[in-house]
Design a protein that fits this description.
heterodimer, A: mainly beta, Elongation Factor Tu (Ef-tu), domain 3, Rossmann fold, 2 domains, 6-stranded antiparallel beta barrel, 4 helices, 14% helix, B: alpha/beta, TIM Barrel, 7-stranded parallel beta sheet, 4-stranded antiparallel beta sheet, 10 helices, 15 strands, 34% helix, 19% strand, globular
């Protein structure tokens, strides 16, 4: 984890309530699919945790949904403005565990980390399932297709209905979607969301129950393996 | 002949414990140091007040535990900690590897017996310089709040811990009282060696779209720069009421805040919520203090304790 000042090079609306921001760091660094960043916004005490959608050299892509005052404020940040960012945070997906042809399931604002993951394991021919509540909220369908991975779209239904039983599933989305994915999965890894304060494991603000006690979503997660869950 | 000092003297004393500088990360915002040791050498810190420890392991409260506020936050972690046994067997040895100075053992309890059990155990740990008795955590139903809000109960805990331990004991007070000086005086009379204040203020946020409290436990502890002026006032109230060393805290986020808190009457200071948004903040403050002291004509921090006229 480093504190860095990144420059905003793009911040645009790409679907209903969904924005894509690209930021340039002083230098390139490695990130793992499933990791996130904490963004400091002027006048806001806590940082905003945003999942990493893509990293290309020194340029990071973040796709975020406007859910409150903080993310609304983010939409008004302009090209050229500077952003105080803690990055990268969290554990990320364990790529070695993911077999050929795994199902990558993203729901709504859970789609962006799946892009990072699909890109990282494209040679393993993953099958991507994207779920959106409505046509207006669809984003990144073409971006996935450009990676050359099989991509299925579900609009207004349950994206997990499309996933075959017994699949190895990597998923990110609302908890109800993760539970549905988990019910079908033979094995898998899921990224979780929680209200956080620090984002680096110090405050215990985001501890979640697992089989052997608890995990801090920010530090021990956000990616947690199926076998570790208390579901 | 008096030796002239080239750099201002940042050292302070807390009931016999010498600190190279007054900056101490506050309990609950620094864990047992591990997460921050990856970022900088913790040995620059004056001391560390480690995660509040109870006799038994505690998971704490349900999620969400965090709500944002203007210039601050509410937390309702609920004293999540691995329990006394694990802290002694695992956390303290691990902490010793990354921090070589004496630490402050922050203790919470739900009964006088529990405070005593923790105090007795930490009293035996060489690594521990001070016992900080949290009688103020507002998060737990039927928990420490009762002790910290009543002078008699605060004195009862203080006296019992005093009997059980030889190390200096600082009572960490709740600000959720009408007259904090009265509580501090009761602790002083019962044998406290010092006072830590303030803990968090009870607060709440409501999500107006969901018509529901943001955090699962509804109410929690409000901290951050928003509470700094109230903390300065309360530290000064206690400074005027007791003749004990004080660890002052509440919203400190800069070297200027540190000087202000010491001028209000604190001997040392603790930094809490600010660590969570800038994990390097303690380091930055320690590095900034000498030049700020020079700018303000302060040769020693001991000279400015409670100097505000």
């Amino acid at each position: 984890m480093k504190q860095q000042i990144a420059e905003i090079i793009e911040n645009k609306n790409i679907a209903r309530s969904i924005w894509q921001m690209r930021i340039r760091f002083p230098e390139a660094f490695d990130v793992k699919a499933g990791q996130f960043v904490q963004i400091s916004l002027p006048g806001r005490f806590l940082r905003r945790p945003i999942s990493i959608c893509d990293m290309d050299g020194d340029v990071m892509t973040l796709v975020y949904k406007v859910v409150g005052g903080g993310t609304d404020q983010m939409t008004r940040l302009a090209e050229g403005e500077q952003l105080d960012v803690l990055a990268p945070l969290g554990n990320g997906y364990d790529l070695d565990q993911i077999p050929e042809g795994a199902a990558l399931v993203g729901g709504g604002v859970g789609v962006p980390p799946m892009y990072c993951l699909a890109k990282a394991i494209a040679d393993k021919k993953p099958v991507v399932y994207l779920g959106f509540a409505s046509e207006e909220e669809v984003f990144f369908k073409e971006a996935f297709e450009a990676l050359g991975v099989e991509t299925h779209l579900n609009i207004g239904g349950y994206v997990t209905d499309d996933v075959p039983d017994g699949a190895y599933i990597c998923a990110c989305g609302p908890e109800v979607m993760l539970r549905a994915a988990n019910a079908k999965a033979a094995d898998g890894q899921y990224s979780f969301e929680a209200r956080m304060a620090c984002g680096f494991g110090a405050c215990m603000g985001c501890s979640m129950h697992v089989k052997d006690g608890y995990k801090r979503v920010c530090k021990d997660g956000p990616v947690i393996g199926k076998e570790e869950l208390a579901w | 002949m008096v030796e002239s000092r080239k750099t201002p003297d940042m050292s302070v004393d807390l009931a016999g414990m010498h600190l190279d500088n007054p900056v101490i990360p506050a309990s609950g915002t620094f864990g047992f140091g591990r997460e921050y040791a990856d970022l900088y050498d913790l040995n620059i810190l004056g001391s560390i007040s480690f995660k509040g420890t109870t006799r038994d392991p505690r998971y704490g409260n349900e999620l969400p535990r965090i709500a944002e506020c203007t210039a601050g936050m509410i937390n309702s972690v609920g004293l999540q900690n691995p329990g006394l046994e694990a802290v002694l067997a695992e956390e303290l040895p691990a902490l010793a590897k990354i921090y070589s100075k004496k630490v402050i053992a922050n203790i919470s309890g739900f009964s006088v017996d529990e405070y005593v059990a923790c105090a007795e155990a930490f009293d035996q740990a060489d690594q521990v310089g001070i016992l900080e008795i949290n009688v103020s955590c507002p998060n737990v139903h039927g928990g420490g709040i009762a002790f910290g809000q009543d002078p008699k109960e605060a004195a009862r805990v203080t006296a019992a811990v005093r009997k059980a331990a030889k190390k200096p004991i600082f009572i960490k007070l709740s600000p959720n009282v009408t007259d904090i000086a009265e509580i501090a005086k009761a602790c002083e009379a019962a044998g406290a060696d010092g006072i830590s204040l303030v803990n968090t203020f009870l607060g709440a946020r409501i999500d107006i779209k969901r018509r529901a409290f943001v955090i699962a436990n509804k109410k929690g502890g409000f901290s951050g720069p928003a509470i700094f002026p109230i903390a300065v006032r309360m530290v000064n109230d206690v400074y005027n009421a007791v003749d004990l060393p004080i660890m002052g805290m509440g919203g400190i986020a800069s070297a200027e805040d540190v000087i202000e808190m010491i001028m209000a009457g604190a001997d040392a200071i603790q930094i809490g919520a600010a660590n969570l948004v800038d994990p390097w903040v303690c380091k930055k403050i320690i590095e900034r203090l000498p030049s700020l002291m020079e700018e303000l004509g302060i040769s020693s921090l001991k000279e400015i304790k409670g100097c505000a006229k």
